[in-house]
Amino acid sequence: MDIVQTQDLRKRYGKVDRVCDLSLHVPEKKVYGFLGPNGAGKTTTLKMILGLIHPSDGGVTLFGQPMDGKNRLSLLRDVGSLIESPSYYGHLTGLENMVVAARMRGLGMAEIDEALGAVRLSEAKDRRVREYSLGMKQRLGLAIAILGRPKLLILDEPTNGLDPAGIQEIRELIISLPIRYGMTVLISSHLLSEIDQMADVVGVINEGQLIFEDKLSALHALSQQALAIRTTDNHAAGELLTAAKVAWQRSEDYLLLNRLRDDNVARLSQILVAKGIGLLRIEERQSSLEDIFLRITGGAVSL
Ligand SMILES: Nc1ncnc2c1ncn2[C@@H]1O[C@H](COP(=O)(O)OP(=O)(O)OP(=O)(O)O)[C@@H](O)[C@H]1O
């Protein structure tokens, strides 16, 4: 079952659709990476899923139930979230902050201890939060979000501003959540490398539109695209390809073609040899994930 589904979700600010016909499918007990450049509409989408802002059109289904004004609060009881920077009381300790959050949800010390342990803040729990490092504050935000093991966790760029060690810690925690607690995690990021290391499923948003949604492996599979050939006469080979209506481009000593079926590769080599052009190398080129991302977003992305 999909834990989150959106149906043609739309958000219009002024005259512009910032989120447009967006239909997401977040499968159960997976990490869903919601990837897109700054300003693509990630936060706006997550806020609509959390009922924090109203969609201009379309709807949100959580745990198989269409969310409406009546069931919103009961559905959101099973959702933990961290959107933008975590809110906390600096003059209180980590533990006291957790107690405040736990009380609001009717939870007790057992849940608090579990969440603090999961983010490795047990030892620092009696220190005032204003003395915490940024990474510790972020982990406290996460501890509050996972209090009581919600079925769904929604995180908006949770590693923003953290140092590499802090990023690694958060990443390991997120990956462990579906296995450890059976949680489903929906996490946004503008960093391809980050999503690549965490997600099972990826949704790519660009200018408010979902332009890709599939398993991470499917995104990788897109990468076996190019065939590189090197011949004794690349110039003549290029002309032959153009005449045969095969698209190609030059890359140093190679001609790059889209991936061809085996029988077409065989035919291509015959044509070249028949014209006296020797085939020196034929290689399958794996374009990097960055290349793919640039291609599907039309280049408008920070990596
Ligand atoms: N309340 C608002 N009023 C008007 N425009 C808004 C509002 N909130 C967001 N926007 C615009 O909607 C677009 C999408 O913003 P959003 O914050 O969802 O993007 P994002 O993908 O989360 O990017 P970032 O990573 O930079 O936060 C942006 O152009 C933003 O300026």
From TrEMBL:
SUPFAM superfamilies: P-loop containing nucleoside triphosphate hydrolases. Belongs to the ABC transporter superfamily. It comes from Eubacterium aggregans. This is ABC-2 type transport system ATP-binding protein. It comes from the Bacteria. The lineage of its organism: Bacteria, Bacillati, Bacillota, Clostridia, Eubacteriales. PANTHER family: ABC TRANSPORTER, ATP-BINDING PROTEIN. GO terms for molecular function: ATP binding; ATP hydrolysis activity. Gene3D superfamilies: P-loop containing nucleotide triphosphate hydrolases. Residues 4-232 form the ABC transporter domain. Pfam families: ABC_tran. InterPro entries: AAA+_ATPase, ABC_transporter-like_ATP-bd, ABC_transporter-like_CS, P-loop_NTPase. Keywords: ATP-binding, Nucleotide-binding, Transport.
